[in-house]
Design brief:
heterodimer, A: alpha+beta, three-stranded antiparallel beta sheet, B: mainly beta, 2 domains, four-stranded antiparallel beta sheet, 1 helix, 27 strands, 39% strand
């Protein structure tokens, strides 16, 4: 009986450590979030953005993505929302590629002409 | 009495087992929930996603451009530029044609061209030019012969050259010339090599070298030089001339660096990481240090004869951190 109890207590302790291990893993994951920042660029006739990872420039966008021609964002808020979407996607380990439906959803006026 | 005691013990066993399994279940459900929320953390890559294959690419000055491709689910039309000097990317104007992969890309006089390819149903023959100074795409004359994918293309001396490839039924051996001043195509005669798809080219001092590729499951060994001044082809030594050559492959990338030619990655039964260096003065090949990253076919290469970046195109768009610069003369260092 005692032996069995000790056995179960050991199992409980091991399970506890396992659980703690999982919790640590979770915290670790949260801490390992990518260090991504966006900066809004004030351009001659509008706004752009750049994305940095660990303070290293990885994406610089002086013109609205997808759109033909060199049209910057009209407002800094448009640029900011778009940059934040890219960071959101990168944090989810998704490709930073932006699509027309996404830019519509972000209410970028150039994609909501209709 | 002993019997009852045992019964109690059994009940205890069952209670504790139930609790233990409940705990384990809870832990299991916790962790699986977190997997869904947080995604997969095992890959150290910044950018993740399904593999992208068969993107078209070209280089203008110090900017590499790459777009289209297939991510395993969708054919893509997004288009990116990589600044080789400052090491950053920008998403440019979308490729205006049908989303596709296995398209051909080339540069003529400071403009990029992408055309042909495969949209999941059909081989294609439409072509577009990209002007980096305006970020605008323009449709050009449609390729007048059989639509195809996995064709070969290069630009030199103000003209584009496009040929070989797979038309859906057969591999091709015809070559065509595109003249941007008249926006017209004309057939080029005189290529004596075999029909093929997924071949590779590089240009050294105004001579274009062409080889590799596959036809009917056979990796081709013939190797050619094209002189654009006379538009004539000359056959060079085969790619298995020396016993230790293992150059034959398809879906490789070709590039030029410091006046040597290179054929890298690709597939020959399995995907390859090997890089071979071509010396045009002796018509000989030498193996260089294998590409550091996972082997893959249909890589992307940006090269301007001064610097070269090879990317594996492993991503929904591009693994932006997946490019590696190639230094052919440096000692191998696995720490960098």
């Amino acid at each position: 009986m005692k032996r069995t109890l000790i056995a179960y207590i050991s199992i409980a302790v091991v399970s506890g450590f396992l659980f703690l291990g999982f919790s640590n893993y979770k915290t670790g994951s949260k801490e390992s979030k990518l260090q991504l920042q966006s900066e809004i660029l004030k351009l001659e006739n509008g706004y752009g953005y750049q994305i940095k990872l660990d303070n290293k420039l990885i994406i610089r966008q002086e013109f609205i993505p997808i759109l033909q021609g060199k049209k910057p964002f009209t407002t800094s808020q448009d640029a900011k929302r778009t940059a934040e979407r890219i960071i959101y996607k990168l944090q989810k380990r998704e490709s930073p590629i932006l699509t027309i439906p996404e830019l519509r959803e972000l209410k970028i006026p150039e994609f909501n002409l209709n | 009495m002993k019997y009852i005691y045992n019964m109690k013990e059994k009940v205890n066993h069952i209670k504790m087992l139930t609790m233990a399994s409940l705990t384990l279940c809870l832990m299991a459900s916790c962790s699986s929930d977190d997997d869904e929320d947080l995604g997969n953390w095992t890959d150290k890559s910044v950018f993740d996603g399904s593999p992208r294959s068969g993107s078209a690419y070209f280089t203008i000055g110090n900017i590499g451009y790459s777009g289209t491709g297939y991510d395993g689910e969708d054919y893509l039309s997004s288009f990116w530029a990589y600044n080789m000097d400052d090491d950053y990317w920008s998403q440019k104007a979308d490729f205006p044609g049908t989303a596709r992969n296995a398209a051909a890309g080339f540069t003529i006089s400071g403009k990029g061209y992408i055309g042909s390819g495969y949209d999941g149903l059909d081989e294609l023959s439409d072509f577009y030019s990209y002007d980096p100074s305006t970020n605008l795409w323009t449709a050009i004359a449609t390729f007048p012969s059989t639509p195809r994918r996995s064709a070969l293309a290069f630009g030199i001396n103000g003209y584009g050259y496009f040929g070989t490839g797979f038309d859906g039924d057969n591999d091709r051996k015809d070559f065509w010339k595109y003249d941007p001043s008249t926006d017209s195509w004309s057939e080029l005669v005189g290529f004596g090599g075999d029909k093929r798809r997924a071949a590779t080219t590089f240009t050294i001092n105004d001579i274009v070298y062409m080889g590799t590729g596959v036809a009917n499951g056979v990796y081709l060994l013939d190797f050619w030089a094209f002189d654009p001044a006379t538009e004539s082809w000359t056959q060079l030594l085969d790619l298995d001339e020396e016993d230790d050559y293992s150059i034959a492959r398809s879906n490789a990338v070709g590039f030029t660096l410091n006046d040597y030619g290179y054929i890298a990655t690709g597939t020959s039964g399995g995907t390859l990481r090997t890089i071979w260096e071509y010396d045009p003065s002796s018509d000989t090949w030498e193996a260089k240090t294998d590409f550091e990253r996972t082997s893959r076919q249909d890589a992307v290469v940006f090269s301007n004869n001064v610097r070269t970046f090879i990317g594996l195109g492993r991503t929904g768009s591009l693994y932006l951190d997946d490019l590696e610069e190639f230094f052919p003369y440096d000692e191998y260092d696995d720490e960098d």
